[in-house]
Structures are given as C-alpha cells and as structure tokens.
Specification:
The chain is mainly β. The chain folds into two domains: 2-56; 104-197, no CATH class. It is built from four helices and 15 strands. It has helices at 63-69, 131-135, 178-184, 193-197; strands at 2-3, 6-7, 10-11, 14-21, 24-29, 35-37, 42-45, 55-56, 116-122, 125-130, 139-145, 148-154, 160-165, 174-177, 189-190. The strands form five sheets. Strands 4-5-6-7 form a four-stranded antiparallel beta sheet, with no helix packed on it. A hairpin with a 2-residue loop joins β4 and β5. The protein is globular, with a radius of gyration of 18 Å.
C-alpha cells in the first residue's frame, strides 16, 4: 500500500510505530504522533483521528519483471554499514506457523488464515480474491464489486498487473493476508472461481 503524505493540504512525514492493531502494523506521523491504520486507511488515535489517507496507485511485482519494464532502475545498496544479511527474509518461517502471533478476533474460514489476497473496496463493498486462485487463471478476469464491473489483468506468471473499472480507470487494490483483510472488512465478499465456470 502506498499513501499520500498530504492531508488537508499539509505534508506529513511517517514512521513505523512498532504498535499493532488487529495484528496490522500502525504508522505514526512525526508532526502530531497520530497513529494511522494501513488497512483501515485512516487515523485511529491522536489529534488527527478520523482523517483518511489517500491511496496512491502502486503495484507488487517480481524483480525480473520490474527490471524488464524499467531497465534503468537504481537499486538501494545493501552496503549500509550494518552487519546484516539482507538476502535472508526475517519472516520466512511465519507462513509455516499454523496460528497467528497476535490475536485479531475470530477469523472467518472462507480462506486459509494466511492466504494472500487481493482486496478491493468499491462503494463500501469489500471483496477478497485469493492470489492462489488468480494465479491459476492468467488473462482478464471480469467481476463485480459494489455494483461496479471491474477487470483484473493477470500475467502468464500469475501476477496482478492491472485493476480497472469498466471505463478503463485504474482501481487501487490491497495485497494482504486473509486474516488481516477480513479483520478490517468483516463483511467482505470472497471471489469464488467456480462461480465463474458455471
């Protein structure tokens, strides 16, 4: 997720608070120490409580695909002055653990707890798409969210490359774990590929 730093015409700088809300990391702004929820997309505590974040279009992709499309990309050096192996994923074992490290309340059983999903919200309707399901059907997926027709473009490698409405306008999606998406969107709908095959 990428959000604008401009709120009500003022530019803020953000940091990682180290705090969790429903097992989702909270941001804070340096100007007011307000706490911001990523998945709720708003301030949940502090002077700016209730203010909303504006999402900026972004994508999640493999490095090889990014480099192919953007060959002149500069990469941040791992020579940081700190003794750390940046090739090791600190969360590598997280998916292998059956349960959650921190509680989020009851987790709906529509999908596996740690299934990665693409979450889309339109007209106050939320819908989750299992990335595992999307990867099995490359091409163009047409569906409906909140009464609006949407299109999800999936590459032959199973990556979500584009989300747009029926007029071709880009739609922002969120990549999340199922447990987190459903915790912040308890009434979320879930895409079922078998429904499309009927």
């Amino acid at each position: 997720m990428v959000y604008s730093r401009i709120i009500d015409g003022k530019t803020y700088t953000f940091g990682v608070s180290g705090l969790l809300h429903k097992s989702n990391l909270l941001l804070y702004d340096h100007q007011t120490d307000t706490l911001w929820s990523q998945l709720k997309e708003m301030a949940i505590a502090g002077p700016l409580v209730g203010k909303e974040l504006t999402k900026i279009r972004s994508s999640e992709t493999k490095w090889k695909d990014w480099k192919k499309r953007n060959p002149e990309t500069l990469v941040l050096s791992t020579d940081t002055g700190y003794d750390r192996d940046y090739s090791v994923d600190p969360y590598e074992g997280y998916l292998r653990i059956g349960g959650l490290m921190f509680p989020v309340g009851d987790v709906r059983r529509d999908l596996p707890t740690k299934q990665r999903v693409l979450g889309i919200r339109i007209n106050d309707t939320a819908k989750a798409y299992s990335l595992q399901d999307l990867q099995k059907q490359p091409g163009l997926l047409k569906d409906t969210v909140g009464g609006e027709t949407i299109e999800i473009e999936i590459s032959k490698d199973g990556e979500v490359t584009e989300i747009r409405d029926s007029k071709g306008n880009a739609i922002n999606g969120v990549f999340s774990y199922w447990f987190a998406w459903q915790a912040f969107h308890p009434d979320t709908e879930v895409y079922r590929p078998e429904e499309k095959q009927k």
